[in-house]
Amino acid sequence: MIDIKGFLQSVIDSKASDLHLVSGVPPMLRIDGQLMPIPSVGVLTPDQIGELLKGILNSEQMERLTVNKELDFSFPFSEKGRFRVNAYTQKGSYAAAFRLIPLTISSIDSLGLPPILHSFASLRQGFVLVTGPTGHGKSTTLAAILQEINESRPVHIVTIEDPVEFVFSPVKSIISQREMRSDTHSWEIALRSVLREDPDVVLVGEMRDYETIAAALTIAETGHLVFATLHTNSAAQSIDRIVDVFPDEQQRQVRLQLSNTLEAVFSQRLIPTTTKGRVVAYEIMLGTTAIKTAVRDGKTHQIESILETSQEAGMSTIEKSLADLVKRGLITLDTAQGWSLRPEELTRLVRGA
């Protein structure tokens, strides 16, 4: 039976992370990182997908999808979960990707994240980046950090998202969650006005372009705590990505801004385990004097060696994290090498050389 509620229920029942609706194939679930069809459901047609989307979109959203060919929105599913949805067109027909957003915000410890992330929640100002590929838990990690702030400090948290994912209930903090289009007309306008909203903590859902990155840096520079995400693979790459979006004549100033405000870059991956499920592997870069000097002087090639020699300060390379998971028997060496940026270094660490 072609029923959107039944498909979404299958996501929850199967402990899947995503649902894909694309014409020419059955509805597909992503479970532990792998795609598989919903059992006993046939191939979807373009007309069927159109009807499924009409069942959850209002007339204004349907018009935006028709005109713009793509649409981001969130969709509450009874009391079982929320979904972040991207509806789009491909080969002239509609398609959609649904990401399950749990109603309960997990803690840093329950997610298996390193204890040093607790220190991020106690920061009063500065710039913290959470990076990694799409679908590898960046939003979940940030939600855990923000929830710890919410439960421990009387501050004003402002989030700017597209769309709003985790919904927070105020505990000790007050929380303003702003969604593109429904609460503000653009990232640029929202970030420009956020300083007038008396924030203590600002979450920038995604730093997409020059204007967004420039505004986030300015907010951090004016004494606020700013969290943001980037789709990058390492700490050094994150710094280069930020600097490279600016014109050549501004890059020196941006490196200076970053060196003054950067507190941490946390880069993460969700790796398939040897049994079932996924486990987090990570890289941690902290804003120490050595790191800030390398950023300021444009010597990001030195960051890798600083991470390797600063483990006592709490830093870690992705290879160190992967090697630890292999030694604990949670992932295989082959799997680890597939996610490593430097497979030879990973093999050396696993062998204890």
Question: Can you give a write-up of this model?
Answer:
The protein has 353 residues and is an alpha/beta fold. The protein folds into two domains: 4-101, Beta-Lactamase; 117-316, P-loop containing nucleotide triphosphate hydrolases (Rossmann fold, 3-Layer(aba) Sandwich). Helix content is 37%, strand content 25%. The chain has 14 helices and 13 strands. The chain has helices spanning 4-13, 46-54, 59-68, 117-121, 138-152, 187-193, 210-221, 235-244, 248-261, 289-296, 303-308, 318-327, 333-339, 343-351, and strands at residues 18-21, 28-31, 34-37, 70-77, 81-90, 93-101, 126-131, 156-161, 174-179, 201-204, 225-230, 262-272, 278-286. The protein has a seven-stranded mixed beta sheet, sandwiched between helices. Helix 7 runs parallel beside helix 9, helix 8 crosses helix 9 (248-261) and helix 12 crosses helix 14. The model has no long low-confidence stretch (mean pLDDT 93).
Mean pLDDT: 93
Count of alpha and pi helical runs: 14
> Can you tell me the CATH topology of the largest domain?
Rossmann fold
State the order of secondary-structure elements, H for helix, E for strand: HEEEHHEEEHEHEEHEHEHHEEHHHHH
Oligomer: single chain
CATH superfamily of the largest domain: P-loop containing nucleotide triphosphate hydrolases
State the major sheet: 7 strands, mixed
Overall form: globular
Lateral strand order in the biggest sheet: 9-8-10-11-7-12-13
Low-pLDDT stretches are none
User: Can you tell me the number of structural domains?
Assistant: 2
Radius of gyration based on Cα positions: 21 Å
**Main structural class:** alpha/beta
Give the N-terminus to C-terminus distance in angstroms.
57 Å
CATH architecture of the largest domain: 3-Layer(aba) Sandwich
| CATH secondary-structure class of the largest domain | Alpha Beta
